[in-house]
Amino acid sequence: FFPGGVVVISPTINMDSSSRFMKKRFECYDQYSPTLIADILRRQEEKDDEDPTKDIAMVLDDCVGILDRHIANLVTRSRHYGIKLLVISVQKFRGALDPIIRANATDIIVGSPFPNMKELTAISEEYGDLFQGPKQWLKLYKKATPKKYDFAYMKMSNPPLMYKNFEKVVGVGGMKSEEETSPIEEKEKKQDENNL
Hints:
It is a single chain. The protein is an alpha/beta fold. Helices cover 35% and strands 19% of the residues. The protein has helices at 20-25, 34-46, 69-77, 99-104, 117-127, 134-144, 183-195, and strands spanning 6-9, 27-29, 56-60, 83-88, 107-111, 151-155, 161-164, 168-172. It has a four-stranded parallel sheet with strand order 2-1-3-4. The chain has a four-stranded antiparallel sheet with strand order 5-6-7-8, covered by helices on one side. Strand 1 (6-9), helix 1 (20-25) and strand 2 (27-29) form a beta-alpha-beta unit. Helix 5 (117-127) crosses helix 6. The longest helix is centred in the first third of the chain and has 13 residues, at 34-46. The termini are far apart.
């Protein structure tokens, strides 16, 4: 998928023995610096647009505390540098992700179990309006994550979609759910049923 390879920047990559497989296969760094990002982007700029190795993926894992303006700039310009997939993995949402990063996200995964209700509430407040409000978003999240290690996947398309894992659509943004009918709609529904 990425002829130019995969770049992984993870401050914790050397703390997890399972990462040894990633380190064999991908270009990995255990420290972030603006200079590192600049060097990667410079390398990408030097490649001709027709060069298939210009297509890369970049993963910023466990990167709370390193999401500075350089990363926000990278998010808005990544496709111009041949970064076809940019993954940002964080344990903390509130205060960790720059609004520019959140506004430019095209796909979002929220894992489970989610131990911090404040963080889950922050996510529901951020994306809830796309799915009829934060309460409805939380209902969809629970529907998408009934088991340990399930996750809610949001495709920020038009309309936005929420999936259980990548398999089943559990919510379509912009559409009223069955539970959300107004009292007038309920009355009309009962009248229609009585007329049958």
